[in-house]
Amino acid sequence: MVKKNKMKKVKGNQVILSFVCLVLGFMLAFSYHLTKKEKEASKITDMEWEKTLDLRNQLIDQEQANRELQKELNQEQEKVLEIEKQLAKEAQVYFNLAEDAEKYRMYLGKVAVKGKGVQIILNDGEYEPNEENINNYLVHEHHIFKVINELYISGAQAVAINGQRLSHNSYIVCDGPVITVDGFQHPAPFVITAIGDPEVLESAINLTGGVKDQLVNDNILFSIEKKDEIILDPILGN
Fold first, then answer.
1. Does 131 fall in a domain?
2. 121/166 same-domain check
3. Is the whole-model pTM more than 0.70?
4. Angstrom distance (rounded) from CA 116 to CA 227
5. What 3-state DSSP class applies to 104?
6. Per-residue confidence (pLDDT) for residue 2, from 0 to 100
7. Coiled-coil regions in this chain (predicted)?
8. What is the DSSP-derived secondary structure letter of residue 121?
9. φ and ψ at 159, to 5 degrees?
10. Do residues 119 and 226 share a domain?
11. pLDDT value at residue 51
12. Span 76-96, mean pLDDT?
């Protein structure tokens, strides 16, 4: 009986020991498995951190490169701006030269001109039977010179006599009742047209004691009229 009780006690202890071993083994296995997962998770986290750090460093490098490129761009833009300013100055110079050339061609009579101006008519005075010298009521070249000179002084851009354009080297010669302009004869009345500011030209001609008064005192029939449009053709030939 005692022997049977001892055997039962031993078997019970074995069962308990087995159960304890089983539980212990399960705990060890679970602990190992959990530790393994934590290590793997830690390893993945470290890799992601390194990857993030690498990307951040790349981003910093790229931003630095962008700043350098922006500096270069700003420098190049400044160069372009300076070039544009220089080109603008050169363009203005060329424009002024072209404008001057156009003015010279106009003064030389190389191009047709159109604009506002005045028309002056000079005609021989009325015949006086008692006047011994017929030249005392005829228009002479010095009368025409006075008008033309006053017009040029007052800013006339182009002048013509009876439609014949005058140039910088034109000559006018009196030949009895006619005048010769650059080899072409013109009878009275002499129509002098000038392109310029009509108000200025008319005022200059009509000054008291000026050209108009001098011509009237010489018995010359004189008239002046402002014109909204005058067209003068270029001078033909050389």
1. yes
2. yes
3. no
4. 6
5. helix
6. 47
7. 52-93
8. E
9. -135, 145
10. yes
11. 78
12. 83
| Per-residue pLDDT at 225 | 95
Instruction: Report the alpha-carbon distance of residue 186 to residue 55 in Å, rounded.
Output: 96
Q: Alpha-carbon dihedral of residues 196, 202, 206, 207, nearest 10 degrees?
A: -60
Listed in order, strand segments (DSSP E) in the chain are 113-123, 158-161, 164-165, 172-175, 178-181, 184-187, 190-195, 221-232
In a domain, 98, yes or no: no
Burial (CB count within 10 angstroms: exposed 0-12, middle 13-18, buried 19+), residue 211 = buried
Domain hosting residue 196, numbered range: 115-230
Please tell me the predicted confidence (pLDDT) of residue 6: 53
Domain count for the chain, please give it. 2
Residues 128 and 214 in one domain: yes
Q: Which amino acid is at 222?
A: F
Residues 156-175 have pLDDT tens digits of 989 999 999 998 788 899 88
The answer to whether position 144 is within a domain reads yes
In whole angstroms, give the CA distance from residue 73 to residue 71: 5
Q: Which residues of 138-164 are buried (b: 16+ CB within 10 A; e: fewer)?
A: bbebebbebbbebbbebebbbbbbbeb
Question: Residue 198: which CATH number?
Answer: 3.30.70.1880
